[in-house]
């Protein structure tokens, strides 16, 4: 067992978990709702929220409900800043050319997390894929593309034969697809983005069912991936 000097901080862990709860909720929550989802007494949740609010990480809306604070945007902008800076013009170009939401996904332990996202400017309807959105790396097109860059020894435990086959096919086809895996009714196409000295990543689009050819979408994504790799030196 870890001793007192090396044991993780329960208070810090709970504070981080509150931020995750608010991000996943996609709406404001009452203190009671936060406490219930965190599985703590209301007074504990209140003290944690007061501290987070003091640092601008949470805020209150007009009804007094809890939302994520604007300070988080400043912190997020500093994450892989050079990668985001090089990727955003390419994500924007793809989104507007294809009329689909285009996003950059990176590996975070056993999850794939959206680092940056751009919705098409003139689409009649588009799918929101907010930065910070995460899902297990074992599902969805971005996850398959990311896993294709990793030896199986670094995969999460319990990967299915179907997933292994899908990740292996990325090496042949150059892209991964998914449908109904992360969000019902949505399709996704992703290409792997390998960058020297960084965790595996992927560029992807997500869209409603259309007559688009995934291979043609992947061809466009791969052009952007190549430009980002070149800009970042590998």
Question: Could you describe the 3D structure shown?
Answer:
With 234 residues, the protein is of the alpha+beta class. The protein is built from 8 helices and 8 strands; from the N terminus they run H-H-H-E-E-H-H-E-E-E-H-H-E-E-E-H. Helix 2 packs across helix 3 and helix 6 packs across helix 7. The longest helix is centred in the middle third of the chain and has 18 residues, at 81-98. Keywords: DNA-binding, Transcription, Transcription regulation. This is IclR family transcriptional regulator. It holds the Pfam family IclR_C. It comes from Microbacterium aurantiacum.
Question: Strands, helices and their partners?
Answer:
Blueprint: H1 10-25, H2 31-38, H3 42-54, E1 58-60, E2 66-68, H4 71-77, H5 81-98, E3 101-108, E4 111-118, E5 134-136, H6 140-147, H7 161-173, E6 176-179, E7 186-193, E8 201-208, H8 214-231
Antiparallel strand pairs: 1-2, 3-4, 3-8, 4-5, 6-7, 7-8
